[in-house]
Amino acid sequence: MSLPIPKLNELQPYYNRQDLLEKVVAQIQKDFDWFNLEVKFTNNPELSAYQELYEQILPLIEEMLNDDYIKLMSILYRIDIDEDFLNRKLKEVPNADTDEVITDLIIKRELQKVIIKHIYSSGS
């Protein structure tokens, strides 16, 4: 019997799993590298992995929102965040900045994908 796949709003228990976070970093770097965008993760002890990734990704998303929306949508497609889902999330938090919502969704979706791979590879 396999574990249920956690939804994006149920990922909090996984935020401190170093083994999974290393895979999330690798996945984000791989996906962003595909579009010649660099994400450098230093494992800064003063920040959580989420915070460091967020601070790395946010300016890239902001720049694409302003200058290259097609590239942004291509990255979101590669990460598996479709436009309808994104629009629903943006409506859920109307006072949040679009770039902040997108950055959060990217990290959470990548973590969710790593968790899914972990669940199915461990046979849990």
Biggest sheet layout: none
Low-pLDDT windows of residues: none
Instruction: Please state the CA-atom Rg, rounded to the nearest Å.
Output: 14 Å
Order of helices and strands: HHHHH
Structural classification: mainly alpha
Tell me the β content: under 5%
Could you tell me the mean pLDDT?
89
End-to-end separation: 7 Å
**Secondary structure: number of strands:** 0
Fraction of residues in H or I helices = 55-70%
Shape: globular
What would you note in describing this structure?
With 124 residues, the protein is mainly α. It is globular, with a radius of gyration of 14 Å. Helix 1 (18-33) crosses helix 5 and helix 2 (49-67) packs across helix 3. The relative contact order is 0.19. The chain contains 5 helices and no strands. It has helices at residues 18-33, 49-67, 69-79, 83-92, 98-122. Helix content is 65%, strand content 0%.
Element layout with pairings:
Elements (H helix, E strand, L loop, with lengths): L17 H16 L15 H19 L1 H11 L3 H10 L5 H25 L2
Short précis:
By secondary structure, the chain is mainly α. It has helices spanning 18-33, 49-67, 69-79, 83-92, 98-122.
Question: Which key terms come to mind for this protein?
Answer:
0% strand; 124 residues; single chain; mainly alpha; 5 helices; 65% helix; globular
